[in-house]
Amino acid sequence: MSALARTAIGLTAGAVFVAAPLLLPAFHVTLLNYIGLSALVALGLVVMTGVAGIVSFGQQAFVGIAAYTTAVLTTTHGLSPWVGLPASLLAVTAAALLIGAVTLRLSGHYLTIATIAWGLAIYHLFAYLPGLGEHSGIDNLPPVAVAGWAAETGVRMAWLIWGVLAAAMLAARNLLDSRRGRAIRALRFRGVMASSFGVDVPALRLQVFVLAALLGGLSGWLHAHFLRFVSPHAFGVNAGIDYLFMAVIGGAAQVWGAVVGAAILTMLKEWLKDWLPAVLGATGNYEIIVFGLLMVLLLHRTRDGLTPAITRWLPARRLPVPPPAEPLPPRGRPAAGSPLLDVQGLAKRFGGLVAVDQVSFELRSGEILGLIGPNGAGKSTVFNLVSGTLDATAGEVRLQGRRIDGLQPHRIARLGLARSFQHVKLVSAMTVLDNVAIGTYLRGRGGSLRAMLRADRAEERRLLAEAARQVERVGLARQLHEAAGSLPLGQQRIVEIARALAADPVLLLLDEPAAGLRLAEKRALAALLRQLRHEGLSILLVEHDMDFVMGLVDRVVVMESGRKLCEGTPQQVQRDPAVIEAYLGGVE
Ligand code: ADP
Ligand code: MG
Q1: Which atom of ligand 1 is nearest to the CA of 378?
Q2: What residue owns the CA closest to ligand 1's atom 7?
Q3: Lowest-confidence range among 217-221, 270-274, 355-359?
Q4: CA–CA separation, 226 and 222 (whole Å)
Q5: Which residue of 264, 370, 444, 556 could cross-link 549, Cys pair, CB 3.0 to 4.6 Å?
Q6: How many DSSP H helices and E strands does the chain contain?
Q7: What does pTM read for this prediction?
Q8: Which domains does the chain carry?
Q9: CB-based burial of residue 584 (10 Å sphere; 0-12 exposed, 13-18 middle, 19+ buried)?
Q10: Closest ligand 1 atom to the C-alpha of 512?
C-alpha cells in the first residue's frame, strides 16, 4: 500500500470516528458504546485464547473488579475517576497475578473449568460483600472529565471508548508483530516448542494472562463511568461466555476479530430480542435458543471465525523481503574435534517401562552423529532427555563440559542447543519467515512494552534479516512469505531446521528429519546437512531410516530396546551381526 493510500485511509477512519457518533441516533450510539466496551475485553481474549491458546470463560471477573474498584473510590471516597483508573488496573493486575499463578499451571480443560469457577466466585463476591451495595450495586458514579470537559453524553463516551479501543488494538497488533509476539504465537503445542527456543513459558503465559485481564479492566473502568452505576449482574458467567464467543466468532487470532465479533454478537442479540417475540407472538427467552443455534451454525461454517473469511476478499498485502541489517553477533564456536556433548549412564523409566537404559555416548564438535535403531528403541526419549523436555531417571548430560540434565529446556537452549521435532511444530498460519524468526528469540531482548510502543524496530529488523538469511540458506527463499502450514511436509521439516539454525546453535538436534519425505526431498535434506557440517555445525541425528543415515553421518550409535547396542563408523556397524539382527529380525 502506498503512503498516500495509507494517509487517505487514516484520514477517512478519523473522520468516521469523529462524525459517526454525531450522526447516529442516540440508541445506536449506545449500541456502539456497548460494542466498544465488549470489543476491548474480546481483544484480550484474541491474544490470550486465539493466539496463545489459553481458553478463559472468566474475563468478566476482571471487568467487574475494575468497575467496582473505581465505583467504590469515586463514590464512597469521593476520588476522581483518574485516581480510579490506575487503582482499578492495579487491582486487576493483583487479581490476575494471583488467579494466574494458581490456575495457569492447569492444562486444557481443567484450566477452562477453573476460569468458570473463579468467574462464579467473584460474581458472588460482588453480590454479597458488604459495602458493594449487594444486588443493587453502586450508583451515582461521576463521569470521566478532562479539563472540565465531561464525558456525560453517549457521543462523548463513544469517542472515549473507541479512542481507547483503537489505541489498544494498535498496541495489540504491534505486540503480535514482534519478538515477544512470535513467542506468544509459539505458546501452542503446550509450550514445548516455545521453550525449546528459550521462551520461559510459564512466565510468558502469566504475562499474557495479565495483559488480557488489563484490557478487561480498562473496559470495566469505562463501563462504570459510562453507565454511572455498577451492579453484579453485568459480571455474571453468561457475560464471560459472550466475550469468548465474540473473540471466536470474529476470528480468534486477529486483532480486528474482536471488533467484528463484538459487533455481530451485540447487534444479533438486540435484533433477536425485538424480532423473535413479533414472529413467535409470545415473549420468553427464545432468543437464547435461536442465538445458540446461530452460533453453532456460524462456527461450523467458518472455523477460524469471520475475519479470515472477510480478509480473503481483500487484496493481498505484498510483503517485502526484510532488508539486510547489521548481523547479530555470532556465538563462539568450540574448536573442531573438542568434546561437545557427553552423555553418561542415561536412563529413563516410564512407570514400569525402561525406555532408556544406561546409554552413554559422546559427540565431538564438527561431526554428525547418527542415533539409530528400530521403532520404540528409545531414540526420541534420549533426544528429549538431552534437550530437557524430559527429566532423566539417572545419568548425566554435559554440553561443552556443563551439566545440563535437570535444566529446563529454555535454559538449555540458552547454552546453544537447538532442535527440530519429530512431529513438525510450526505455527501453520504464520509465514515461513515469522516461524523461522521464532528461532532468533534468544538473540534479541525487546519486551512487550517496547513492542507495543514500536520502540523495538531496530532490533526487529536485525532479527528478521537473520531469519531471512537462514531461510535462504536452506533454500526456501521463494517460500519466505507463504503460510508455513501450506507447504508440503518435506519443506516444513526444512523450515524447522532453518528455525533451529536461526538460534545460532553449537549443537543441532534433529529427530527423524527424513520421515515422510520423498526420495528427492531426502537427497536435498542430506545435501543440506552435509553443507551445515561443512560450515562447522555439529549435529545429533535421530533416524530410523538406515539408508539415509549411512551415507551421511560420521559415526553411529545403535540403540535397541532402550540399550546401546554398539557404536562406530557406518561401515563398522553395518557389518555388526547384532545390528543386522535388530533390523532384519526385529519389528522392522
Ligand atoms: P523411538 O524414538 O526410538 O521410536 P521412543 O523413545 O519414542 O522410541 O520410545 C521408547 C519406548 O518408550 C517405547 O516403548 C515407547 O512406547 C515408550 N515411551 C515413550 N514416551 C513415553 C511416555 N511419555 N510415556 C510412556 N511411555 C513412553
Ligand atoms: Mg522417535
Answers
A1: 6
A2: 380
A3: 270-274
A4: 6
A5: 370
A6: 23, 12
A7: 0.90
A8: 3-237 (no CATH), 334-416+505-588 (3.40.50.300), 426-502 (no CATH)
A9: exposed
A10: 2
